[in-house]
Amino acid sequence: MRRACAWRPPGGPRDTQARIRSGLEIRVNEPSRQPLPVEPPSQPPVKLHTFPAKEEPKWSTFGTACMCLFGIIVPAATLTIELAWAWCASEFFDPVPTHVHSLLVASVPLGNAVALIYSHTRNPRLLRAAILLNGMALAVSTIYSLIFLPFAPLGFIGVIIYGLGLLPLSPHLSFITALVLRRRLKKLHAVHHASPLRPLHGALVALLALSTVEVTGAVTQVALQAATHGTRPETRRAGLQWLRSVGDEETLLASSYLGVKRSSLVAFLLSFDSQISAEDARDTYYRVTGRTFNSVPKPDNLRRGKGFRSSSWDSELGGEHVGGRVPGLSLVSSEMKGAVDGDAALAYLEWTMSFEMTATGQAEARTQVALPPGAVVSRVTLYIDGQEREAAFSSTKQVRAAYQKVVHARRDPLLITQKGKDRIQVQCFPIVKGPPMKIKIGITAPLAPRDEGRFASLPLPTLAERNFHIAEDFRHVVRVESLRPLTTPAGGNLEQRKDGVSEWLAALSDEALVPPQAVLTVQRKGAADIAWAEDMFDPAYVVRQQVRNTVAEVPERVLLILDASAGMKDALPQVAAALSAFPQGTELAVLAAWDGVEELLPLGKADAAALQRAAERVRELSPVGGQDANAALARAWSLAAPQGRTVAVWVHGPQPLGTPRLSGDTTSREYAASRWPTPAPLAELLDVMVGQGPNKMAVDLAPYASFRTVPRLGTLEEDLKNLFSSWGHATPQVHRERMLRAGLELPESAWKTSPHLARLWAREEVSRLIATNEPEPRAQAVQLASRHQLVTEVTGAVVLERQEQYDEAGLKPVDPDSVPSVPEPETWMLLGVACALVIAFRLRRRQA
Hints:
Layout: H1 12-22, H2 61-85, H3 87-91, H4 99-121, H5 127-147, H6 152-161, H7 166-192, H8 200-229, H9 233-246, H10 249-258, H11 265-270, H12 278-289, E1 329-341, E2 346-357, E3 363-370, E4 376-384, E5 387-390, E6 392-395, H13 396-408, E7 414-418, E8 423-431, E9 437-446, E10 448-450, E11 455-459, E12 462-466, E13 476-482, E14 486-487, E15 493-496, E16 502-508, E17 519-523, E18 530-534, E19 541-551, E20 557-563, H14 572-578, E21 587-593, E22 598-605, H15 608-620, H16 630-639, E23 646-652, H17 668-675, E24 684-689, H18 696-701, E25 707-709, H19 716-726, E26 730-740, E27 751-752, H20 756-771, H21 775-787, E28 795-799, H22 803-809, H23 825-847
Parallel strand pairs: 1-13, 18-27, 20-21, 20-23, 23-24, 24-25
Antiparallel strand pairs: 1-2, 2-9, 3-8, 3-12, 4-5, 4-9, 6-28, 7-8, 7-28, 10-11, 11-17, 13-16, 14-17, 15-16, 18-19, 19-26, 21-22
Helix pairs in contact: 2-4, 2-7, 4-5, 4-7, 5-7, 5-8, 6-7, 8-9, 9-12, 10-12, 14-15, 14-19, 20-21
């Protein structure tokens, strides 16, 4: 029997077993023999190294208190103070211009608070929220730290002196706190083996929200900067085009109220030089949209600190401009009643309005009223405790000073002054929550004769600009009476009463009150009639009026200036159609205010071909935005020659832009004098306005040209054709003169009318006196207008609450018995009977 053979290395069986386990030794055993038992190794067992359990991190109480103070309390207090008082927005820029900005800034103390709470409670439910909010806090605080970096030195100084320096330093303190809390979250994450720590998600959420609200605002801000402060005309034009295409109208409207000091954070980082004032933003809003900023409701998210929160603060309180809409202030009632004397070609209207305030605080109602051409305010009344208080008439400077003084004392004043040709401004204060404030304005107006003097027309006054709200369903109640038949295209109820009086009753919306819709036409006896009236303020005189057919001189040169604003879209085709009535052979130039000045027809003799070419160019004109008429009017001024009669016809929509506001030593008046020198080369500047709105350019041009408003009695095409055809033809014209009563003989057919005729004469005489631009005639004009109780270019009217206030201001209210009034229906009946008796008595004398 063979024995098993195996090679055994030296070292004993244990070494052999070790080599066998390592695969270095091969043994051959017999099949029937059991393998040798494997002995355990002789080397010591391997020791397992175990890591000790990690200890929970502990934070110092002092560090936690500092983070609670500088990372939560200080930024929360800073945001609250800025939202309440807007310190930064008032002086530098608005850090929270929108609600999204406010929420993002509020996420900083909130994120720090959640992370701090989690670091102490270790509540796993707060982990995800803490990580997300910490990422948002890091992103937001980083951006605001960069923005407020230039204010850091001021913050350190403020901390040393007053302690308020923590406010501009709060973004930096919040950033440091969020960074420390980020390290705490990392340590806690390592201990509890939680989900992956991804603070980048929160940062992306914050950046996405911030970029969403910043892009549109930044584009609008940069384009607004270029449009208002561009160094070259091309830059300003490009800024306007950007605003018209991609600009945010809400941002522009908000800027128009309170001005913008870089409401966009991106725009703040891009620009540190010039700021955009409210006046610049208002002009740009008109240039972009073609509407005045106060023709639309005020945004609900405004605040005084140049930002976008709600507030009823009125920056124009007691000023000379209408300004923006006041929240809560509205017109609650409006009644216009009047009497028309067609034979004397005059009318008297009384407009009673009531204003109501639904919000807390005090408000001032301001509006510009467009009067009928040639009209004048002859009565001003304020209702105090239900009693009528009449106004005092004096120089504009004196009555405005009295009004502003009483406004600051929070009393009840009413002020009416003239703002340009056929415009007045009405201001009353204070209007508080409670009973409405009620005022009455008396208007003496001439009628425009037409159709060879057989008829006369009267456009009603209208609200051209206002700072109060008018509801969509609001209606102006109108009642007008006349001894002659009345007609109007405005609708309503026309009735011939039994006493022979023609009465018109209507309820008109604010849009329907604008001519040519609200135009009254009354019959007359004839163009050669003479009307007269006693001058009740100077009984030694009477005023005589005669309507005569006068041939209007044909101008040698006509400059037609067109406004290419968006509101003129429907009017320009009518202008083109009216050119067919232009007198051929007269020199004509057609200019358009279209982002500068566009010469549609060069100056030259007008023939059929030239008029047709001009009409085609007018139809091809593309109205856009709101146009500045300065360049077009200056071009027309340069085309006017001192030889021959040059007439400019300006057809336009609302004009909130006047002469440019210049900085430095050059004022707007000096600029206007250099651009429109006097004596004016224009014989006359005829103003034809389309729609309702301000006409600031007319105010600036009044001292430099013979400015006349063309009454809107029909469509624009009809009015322009009547104007063109009147040149060289006999048209009825009204002539008034004052004469001594002693020895004056009047024909028996002369029509005696009311003292309003003397008021119309006084208004014309005041305009003639101030046209001389001399101190002595101007003083005479103030005295004449004050004596006749008129609001003119040099006088105004103010109603004060107490007699002591009148005495302190050196004013005297008028006698209530001297103010005009509208006769009631029964009075008209008595007048009709009296007129019938007078006529019968004169006929009997003729027969005798």
